[in-house]
C-alpha cells in the first residue's frame, strides 16, 4: 500500500486593518427577512477594522431552488473573488445545500497563488475539507455572517460578544498561536485523555459526503488527527449511522482524539441514548479522549476550529488549544 504524505499546510497571509472582506452567497440565498442580520454582520466586521463588500449574488430575494444561484454561477463569483488581489478574506453569508454542486469548478490554482481565509460552517464544511485535500489550505470553520455574526452573536451577553470579536480578530490578524480557546461550563469529558494532532472535521454528514467524492481525504491524513464534528437536525439513529460510516471506512481507527459540538434539533436525544452514549458506543474500546458539548457549529455562537491546524485536547481538563496560527505574516511592501 502506498503511503500518502500529509499536505504542506497552506496558510493565508494575515489581514491588516483596512483589508477588504467580502461576504458572499457560497450556498444558500438571502431571504429578505434576514437583511437586518446581514447588516449587523457588516457592522461587526467593520468594528474589527476591515472594509466590507457584499458579493453581487448576495441579493435579497434572489434564489434558484434552495440556492443563491445555479452552482456554476456561484462558482464563477467565488472564483472571481479568489482571483481578485484586493479581496483578502471571504465569509459565507449562510450555509445551505449547494457546495457539492460546484466542487469541481473551483479555481484551485488561484487558491495556491493567493490563499485567503474562507470563513463559514454548515455546508461550507465541504469547502474547507475539499480545499484542504486539494491545496492544503487552512479552512476557517467559524461563524457564518448572517446567522452567526449578525444573529447568534447579538443574542450573546456583551462580554461574550467582545470576547468573540477579539478572538476572531486575532484569528485573522495574529501570527502567534491563539492557545487555549475560551472554555465554558457546557464542556464535558466523555472519555478522558490528552492528544495532539491536526484538526479535521465539520458537520458530520458533510465529512461523510466528502469521503464519497473524488476529493476524499486520504485515510493516512487522519493518522493522529483530532476529529471535530457537530450535527443539526435529523434523528439520533442518523448520527449513530454516520459515525458507523466513519468507523467502517477506517477513520475512527486512525484519529487520536475527538471534539464534539453542541447538538441542535436532533430528535431522540431527550432520553436514552444520549449523544455521549451514541459516541462511546460507536468508538467501542478505542481509548481516545472525547471532549463534548463545545460551542461550534449550528448551536452558535461559534468558536473557530481551523481545519489543518495542530491542536491539543485534554478532555479531563476540558481544554482545547490551538498550537499554530492559521495565518502567516503579511507581506512586507
What are the secondary-structure elements, in order, as H or E? EHEHEHEHEHHEEEHEHEHEEEE
The radius of gyration over CA amounts to 19 Å
The total count of helices amounts to 9
- Helix/strand-derived category reads alpha/beta
What general outline do the C-alpha atoms trace? globular
Low-confidence stretches: none
Mean pLDDT: 96
How far apart, in Å, are the first and last alpha carbons? 46 Å
Query: How many strands in all?
Result: 14
Beta-strand share of residues:
15-25%
Largest sheet: 8 strands, mixed
Please bin the fraction of helical residues.
Answer: 25-40%
Record the strand order, biggest sheet.
Answer: 6-14-13-8-9-10-11-7
Task: Give a structural overview.
With 333 residues, the protein is an alpha/beta fold. 30% of the residues lie in helices and 19% in strands. The protein has 9 helices and 14 strands. It has helices at 35-47, 71-83, 108-113, 124-135, 145-155, 158-173, 204-210, 236-248, 275-283; strands at residues 20-24, 51-54, 87-92, 118-120, 139-141, 179-180, 188-191, 194-203, 226-230, 257-261, 290-294, 305-307, 310-314, 319-322. The chain has an 8-stranded mixed β-sheet. Strands 2-1-3-4-5-12 form a 6-stranded mixed β-sheet, with helices on both faces. The model has no long low-confidence stretch (mean pLDDT 96).
Amino acid at each position: 500500500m502506498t503511503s500518502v504524505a500529509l499536505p504542506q499546510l497552506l496558510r493565508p497571509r494575515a489581514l491588516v486593518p483596512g483589508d477588504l472582506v467580502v461576504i458572499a452567497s457560497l450556498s444558500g440565498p438571502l431571504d429578505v427577512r434576514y437583511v437586518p442580520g446581514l447588516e449587523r454582520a457588516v457592522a461587526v466586521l467593520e468594528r474589527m477594522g476591515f472594509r466590507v463588500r457584499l458579493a453581487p449574488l448576495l441579493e435579497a430575494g434572489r434564489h434558484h431552488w434552495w440556492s443563491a444561484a445555479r452552482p456554476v454561477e456561484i462558482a464563477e463569483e467565488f472564483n472571481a473573488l479568489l482571483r481578485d488581489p484586493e479581496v483578502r478574506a471571504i465569509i459565507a453569508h449562510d450555509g445551505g445545500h449547494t457546495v457539492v454542486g460546484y466542487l469541481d469548478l473551483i479555481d484551485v490554482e488561484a487558491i495556491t497563488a493567493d490563499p485567503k481565509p474562507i470563513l463559514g460552517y454548515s455546508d461550507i464544511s465541504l469547502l474547507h475539507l475539499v480545499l484542504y485535500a486539494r491545496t492544503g489550505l487552512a479552512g476557517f470553520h467559524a461563524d457564518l455572517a448572517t446567522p452567526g455574526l449578525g444573529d447568534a452573536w447579538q443574542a450573546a451577553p456583551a462580554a461574550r460578544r467582545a470576547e468573540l470579536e477579539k478572538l476572531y480578530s486575532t484569528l485573522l490578524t495574529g501570527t502567534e498561536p491563539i492557545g487555549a480557546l475560551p472554555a465554558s461550563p457546557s464542556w464535558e469529558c466523555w472519555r478522558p485523555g490528552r492528544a495532539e494532532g491536526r484538526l479535521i472535521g465539520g458537520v458530520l454528514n458533510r465529512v461523510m459526503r466528502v469521503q464519497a467524492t473524488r476529493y476524499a481525504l486520504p485515510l493516512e491524513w487522519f493518522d493522529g488527527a483530532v476529529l471535530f464534528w457537530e450535527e443539526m437536525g435529523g434523528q439520533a439513529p442518523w448520527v449513530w449511522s454516520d459515525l458507523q460510516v466513519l468507523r467502517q471506512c477506517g477513520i475512527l481507527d486512525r484519529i487520536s482524539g475527538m471534539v464534539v459540538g453542541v447538538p441542535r434539533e436532533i430528535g431522540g436525544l431527550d432520553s436514552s441514548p444520549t449523544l455521549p452514549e451514541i459516541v462511546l458506543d460507536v468508538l467501542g474500546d478505542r481509548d481516545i479522549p472525547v471532549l463534548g458539548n463545545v460551542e461550534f457549529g449550528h448551536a452558535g455562537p461559534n468558536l473557530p476550529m481551523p481545519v489543518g491546524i495542530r491542536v491539543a485536547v485534554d478532555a479531563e481538563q476540558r481544554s482545547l488549544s490551538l498550537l499554530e496560527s492559521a495565518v502567516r505574516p503579511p507581506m512586507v511592501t
